[in-house]
Each structure stands twice: as C-alpha cells, then as structure tokens.
Design a protein that fits this description.
Layout (H helix, E strand, L loop, with lengths): L8 E3 L13 H11 L9 E5 H7 L3 E3 L7 H10 L3 H10 E8 L2 E6 L4 E3 L13 E3 L5 H16 L4 E10 L2 E12 L5 E2 L15 E2 L1 H13 L8 E5 L24
Parallel strand pairs: 2-8
Antiparallel strand pairs: 1-12, 2-12, 3-7, 4-5, 5-6, 8-9, 10-11
Helix pairs in contact: 3-4
C-alpha cells in the first residue's frame, strides 16, 4: 500500500462580521466558524488578518487628532506625504530606513522593515483613520490561542498575518507579525538530505509560509475574509514567535 499523500485543508469562514474597536475577537471568529458549519480541531492553525486584531485592540487613530511635530513636517515636505501620517510613522518606528518622494520605509518597533511602518488607512471602518499594528502581535497570538482553548478545549496555533513588500521582489505577500503554538522558524541545520548531505544553513520561515498560504484565501482588498483555518500542518508543531523571524541587525548585510 502506498503512503498517504501529505495534504492540507484551508477554509475561510465568510460570516465574520466587521470587527468594532474592543469587540471580543475570539467569539467573533468562533461564531464565524460555526456559521460555516465547521468546528476547530486540536492542531488547527488559525490565521488572523492583522487589521481585525488591531481593531479589537483599539489600535485606531483618527488623523484629525494627530498634531505633527517639526520632524514630521520636514519629512512631509521631503516626501509629499501627509504630515499627520508621518507623525504616526515616527511614533511607531525605531528608524527611518529609506525615503523618497511618496515613499517612507521604516523599521517598526517590532523589528520589521516595511513601508509606512505598516500603518494602513484602508478598511479602517471610517475615513481619515489609521490602523496601527498590535502593540505586541506575539502576545496577541498567544492570548487568542489561550482564549480559544478556554472556550472550546481545543489546542490551536495562531498566526497574525500582514501584507508586506519584499526588498528584492515585486508585490506583497502574507507575512507573520505574530505567532504562537508552532515552530515559527524551523531550524533544519544538522539534518540530512536524501543523499545524506548535512544541511548547513537551512532554516524555514514556517510562520511566514503559513501566512502566505492563508493570504490566498484572505485576499488583500475587499474580500472580507479576515480569518483562515489551516488543518493538517501538524508536522510543524512546536514553540516560537514571529519575532524569531526578524534578522538581527548585526547579520544584515544589506543595511
């Protein structure tokens, strides 16, 4: 008898309502899964769009309430961007990495290097409102998993997904900014390939691959599918955080 094929199942419940600031995100996602005729199983991975996590955690700022400082105003003159947005970028960043007309690349306080410090004005629920990243998305992922376990008895992993560009590639891809309950960075160094060669430098960004897979269902526009369940990825169970995926500055050869 041949060995069973390795396979995954992914589904995106389409009944998760718009998340309001302070809303119980766990209950909203569980209700959406139930409405889809599904239920969570031990070992499932729930991938959450960053935006619904940020909304639930009240990480929204109305631009009309932001007063740009001198640095933000100067950078606005240089880039042509809204000085109120730039003020938020500066608050959320540890470093401005690159800048030009119409573009600011910043190192977010979580270590990710991303346009506009990952601050987004789309799908905020109201106009002239900026959505910031969760204060600590790894903690958000852990708390979501723990609340799901308390509510259902199921042990799950969680990845919080955001769309990011890549320095050497065009287009955006799903990227893990928070993770809990899986090997976010799988170290295969010391293992052997099929010919017996020892792997010298192989590390697999499992959490990023999970985020990118979920993005195929979530979409990045008006799809309204902010949560995806991935089933069958039990060979990557373990512990780790999305912070493990951020390359240390001292090994960054392209700064």
């Amino acid at each position: 008898m041949s060995a069973p094929a390795r396979q995954l199942r992914l589904f995106a419940p389409d009944a998760i309502s718009e998340i309001s600031p302070g809303e119980n995100l766990v209950q909203a996602v569980l209700d959406g899964i139930t409405a889809a005729g599904e239920e969570l199983q031990d070992g499932d991975i729930v991938v959450l769009a960053q935006k619904i996590v940020s909304k639930a955690e009240r990480r929204l700022v109305r631009l009309g309430e932001v007063s740009p400082g001198a640095e933000a105003s100067a950078l606005a003159d240089e880039t042509g961007k809204d000085p109120r947005l730039i003020e938020l970028i500066l608050r959320e960043s540890s470093e401005i990495v690159r800048k030009r007309e119409g573009l600011i690349i910043a190192r977010h306080r979580n270590g990710c290097v991303v346009a506009n410090a990952a601050i987004d004005l789309s799908n905020a629920g109201e106009t002239e409102t900026a959505v910031l990243l969760p204060a600590d998305a790894d903690i958000s992922a852990r708390e979501f998993a723990e609340c799901v376990s308390a509510a259902t008895g199921k042990q799950i992993a969680v990845v919080i997904n955001d769309s990011m560009g890549r320095a050497w590639r065009l287009g955006t891809s799903g990227t893990a900014i928070g993770a809990y309950g899986l090997a976010a960075l799988q170290n295969r160094r010391g293992a052997v390939d099929r010919e017996g060669n020892v792997l010298q430098s192989t590390e697999i960004a499992i959490a990023d691959e999970v985020a990118a897979a979920a993005s195929l269902l979530m979409g990045q526009g008006n799809e309204g599918l902010p949560a995806v369940v991935i089933r069958g990825l039990d060979w990557v169970s373990g512990s780790g955080n999305a912070a493990d995926l951020v390359r240390p500055r001292e090994t960054d050869l392209f700064r």
